[in-house]
Amino acid sequence: MAMHGGFQRKSKVASEIPDSSLADIAFLLLIFFMVTTVFRREQQREIEQPEADATQQVDEKRKNILHLWVERDGAVYINDAAIPVTDVSSIVGQEYESLDRQLVVAIRSDREVSYAVINQITEELREGGALRVNFATNFEERVGATRR
Description:
Elements: H1 22-36, E1 65-70, E2 76-78, E3 81-83, H2 88-98, E4 104-109, H3 115-128, E5 133-135, H4 139-147
Parallel strand pairs: 1-4, 4-5
Antiparallel strand pairs: 1-2, 2-3
């Protein structure tokens, strides 16, 4: 005959999951994902940029620059999306208004693109209300060569 002597267990198995450190864990996961996430930039196009004798580097915030790529065959890309030339004015117009008229359009075209294509694009930019347009050249290559 077993005698219990009136003793009861003081510790009981907890049926709850402790949640006091869940906020710390969530915060650490958030920091981990913020540190390890890489934001994708626009895809570099295989173009041979034209040369220019007088060039200047544009000092503008990256978010205010819209990159318009024109490949050798006349294909037009805005921020990695292939678009028809006739849609340039509507896309640029929307971006221009959303950035409070601070938009700078950087045209990066191949040196072999015909003038007719570039003229058509600049006309579309004019219709879209883009007032600040620059033509990118191989400025970085020229500056790098003079620094050596």
